Amino acid sequence: MKTRNNDACKVSVIVPVYRVEKYIDRCMKSLLKQTLKDIEILCICEEEDSSFKTLCDYERSDQRVRVIKKSNTGVSAARNAGIKAARGEYIAFVDADDWIERYALQTLYRVAKSNDAQIIAYGIWPTIEPKGDKRGMFQYSPNRNVVYHGNGMMALFYEHGSKPYIGNKFYSRSFLTEHNILFHEDIDIGEDQLLQFEAFGQAETICFVKDKLYHYDIKRNNSAMNTCEQQQIIEDKNFKLLQRIMSHKRERYANRYNKEYILWILQYYGEIVNRSVESISENRKNEIFAIQGYLKEMSAEKYIDNLPKEYQYICERFLSYPASKTDYERIHLPYKLFEIYLTEQSEGFYEKMTAASGVFEKVKRVHEAIVFHEFRHLATKALVRFGVF
Q: What is the pTM of this model?
């Protein structure tokens, strides 16, 4: 294997590592077996971590692996260290407890070069069929091959796969450094989404690739996102994210994209008011009033009639709170209708992107459908629709 030293390469893969000893081999093997060989793998890890020795073994056996020793100050700081150390034309982010298809980087590099793209969003899929509220993650994967030129903010708001995850994003390194785009290290919930709000508006060309190349492990028992007792902390941090994003809007976009920001707030924060009056805590009441202020600041009353009906109801609850003292009936937000609405809003802002063809692509597609259990997913959707469970 070729020694990199200070040479450039095609892709730098940034892997923050923290207490994932059960998964690290799976992740590393998926990266080392990539069909694109001209890559570097940057593993950011503290020396005291149980995976550190394993990573050092990989570094000794393959010159493409670099272990960056760093004290644990959060995933944002780890990713920033990786960005600053990267030498690739492009940067990919892979969490240490996830993994990617062996042809992922080759596919993404080819699309990026052929379209001169600064950002590529690509398919992400859970390792197991999710249940309940976690099924909403299916909207985080692109559902078509399209390219946006000079309409990055429209891509951010209306295209599947644009947010919130960083794992299914592929960035031009020169683009990130030119615009000084880094993760905010004081944000540890939603830091990836905050970066996308800053990056998408600066990008000239953004591609969406529906190929499902990223395996996302959603059954991590020690994940903060799955720990019920920390839910309150998570909700508070999510609201801090909203405050930062709205501050960024004031600085950069003033009165632009008001409808889009309104829709995003209703989509991501509507559950705060989509509950019975009695269950709304004092802390949540303060958040409702803050969101009410944001909506009025953006003249939501001008745009409300153009929103899907259910989102109109949510918006009205925010704007009228606490005028109505009656108990709220929970509003069901229809995923399929909302998907149609997004598609309608994005018309005219994108171009269709030619997908690769040939026997290999057809075989790859069948392989993808099996590996990402798409058939099981479709069966589950049918059972849900007919009320079986």
A: 0.87
Rounded (10°) angle between helices 374-385 and 359-371: 50
Confidence band for 1, pLDDT divided at 50, 70 and 90: very low
Query: DSSP readout, 250-295?
Result: HHHTTTTTHHHHHHHHHHHHGGGTSS-GGG--HHHHHHHHHHHHHH
Helix (H, G, I), strand (E, B) or coil at 51: coil
Beta strand 119-126 pairing with 169-172: antiparallel
Composition of the chain by helix, strand, coil, percent to 5: 50, 15, 35
Q: What Rg, from alpha-carbon coordinates, does the chain have?
A: 21
Going from the C-alpha of 74 to that of each of 16, 67, 187, the distances in angstroms are 9, 17, 9
CA distance 94 to 209: 17
Convert the pLDDT of each residue in 27-71 to its tens digit: 999 999 999 999 999 999 999 999 999 999 999 999 999 999 999
H/E/C letters for each residue in 231-253? HHHHHHHHHHHHHHHHHHHHHHC
| Cα separation values, 201 from 260, 330, 342, 374, 375, Å | 13, 34, 18, 33, 36
